[in-house]
Design brief:
The complex is a heterodimer of chains A (206) and B (182).
Chain A (H helix, E strand, L loop, with lengths): L3 H20 L11 H16 L5 H12 L4 H22 L5 H13 L3 H11 L6 H12 L4 H13 L4 H16 L4 H12 L10
Helix pairs in contact in A: 2-4, 3-4, 4-5, 4-6, 5-7, 6-8, 7-8, 7-9, 8-10, 9-10
Chain B lengths: L7 H9 L9 H32 L1 H22 L11 E9 L6 E5 L11 E2 L1 E3 L2 E9 L1 E9 L3 E3 L17 E5 L5
Antiparallel strand pairs in B: 1-5, 2-3, 2-6, 4-5, 6-7, 6-8
Helix pairs in contact in B: 2-3
The chains are: A mainly alpha (206), B alpha+beta (182).
Amino acid sequence: MISRPIRGFITVALSCAALAQVGAQDPRIGNKLDAPSRAALRALVDSARAQGLPTEPLYEKMDEGQAKGADGPRIVAAVRSLTLEMASAHRALGTVATVDEIKAAASAMHAGVPAVELGKIKKQSGLRRSLTLPFTVLADIVSRGVPVEAGVNAIRSLVGAGAKDADLSKFQRNVSVDIEQGAPPAAAAETRAKGATPAAKPEEQY
Amino acid sequence: MAEWGRTTLELVVEELQQPVRLDATFERRVMVRVRRLFAQRRRHRRGWVGVAARVTHHPAWAAAVAASVVAVVTLGVMRTRPQVLPLAAAVVEPVQFVLVAPTAHSVAVVGDFNDWGLNDSALVATHHQGVWSVTAPVPAGVHRYAFVVNGKEWVADPSAPRSAGDDFGMPSSALVVEDSTK
């Protein structure tokens, strides 16, 4: 049987511990959100951190949602989706992937590109080539209607041929203009990929 | 070896089954030792109970103890929390954002590099005959951004790749800033 003073002491200590936990809120999670959403977001950030994922993109997504006037549950859904996509991207790309590559890969996955295809591109390109821009371009052309298979093939052929980031940016602009002018998206990607690789460029005449 | 036909094992068992003969004072000595140990423990426990009782009977002491517990727990929570993984190196490059909007009254640029304009951090563009632009330092890496026209309309950059992440129903663009030092 615990005596009354000891019970009082234990109660005070437990209350203090509970207060300390409540006080340990993440200041980067917006105070304007409702309490359940804040708790869910805090859990998602902790989960991402435990998995070794970058947490900065999650905070950025929260800021974006608040700036665009989304409510708490909508922001939680977006952050949860991003966490899952980054986790899949992280598994597919391996530990050598940079934070930017994981962010770009998550964006491509959101557009509909399977993680396994991103992993193949990473394996093909080796360690030196950053895939941040290739994944960004892939996400863009797929969201413009290029079928996933055609988009992946185009990016793989470009990266495999040693295309620089400038070549990829030009490829993205050309494909988007072609589509806006009425070209079938797959045909635009396949045709522009053939002309964008360094090997396909005509040699300069002296 | 056997004795009178019995095995060695049987002899050992028989010896072990003999009652143990102890010194006549053994039990008394053990009990004295046990009582002494028990008395020491009671004294030790009574000390903590006394402190607890005094603390709970005095509000000032209780407040002080509570503050100490809060401090210890908070410090523990902060110390055990791992650091957020760092993003790319903080190399910053100047980036020019341009939007052609002849009828606009104002254009601002918001993105993950300026907290999406929260806390009045939006980049305000100036215009020259309807061509709005602003140049700002942006950290190397991949970013999402958008233009906000007339303070309310979200517009993606038509000259940039689309950002394919969840955009909350309002379009965003992707920006990859290369690290010029690499």
